[in-house]
Amino acid sequence: MGIAAIGITFNSAGFFLLKRGESLNEKVLSWHLLEDLLGWIAILVGGVIMYFSEFYLIDPIMTIALTAFILYNVSKNLKEAIHILLQGVPKHINLEAAKLDIGAIKGVVGMHDIHVWSLEGETDIFTAHVVLDDETLKNQPEATKQVIRETLLKHHLEHSTIELESQRQCTGNVCEESRA
What we know:
Structural class: alpha+beta
Number of strands: 3
Mean pLDDT: 86
Shape: rod-shaped
Strand content: 15-25%
């Protein structure tokens, strides 16, 4: 019971320091510390119950309950981790709204090869080929690229790689549509 009290103290401190984390790594580590904390609490409570009442079934009951809690939370975190590993569009990103806002920028004719993903659940990345009209591509390519980056920041897309293309030399369906 004394070791359980020490485990509760240290795991509580770690859990409360990390529980405000935003990245998937911080969330998973916070949950791990919470699971350890609950395990130490179960050991302490189980030890007290067994010491005073000799009700030894409390140990497997608490073990099964803690295991069920851990498996439930692992499945939640695993789903989010798989989404990040498969480079899915983050849930908080409205890609259609971002595409509409970029399409409304003066000189932008279209876009293709658009990819949005997150590195670790915190930093969102955008890559795309942006088709510009000839005048904008000739006279203001960097200024237009900067306006696109500022627009992306409004949609929480912090890191972007933008390839500018002309209507005549781009590839993809959007180019065929813009030439018609």
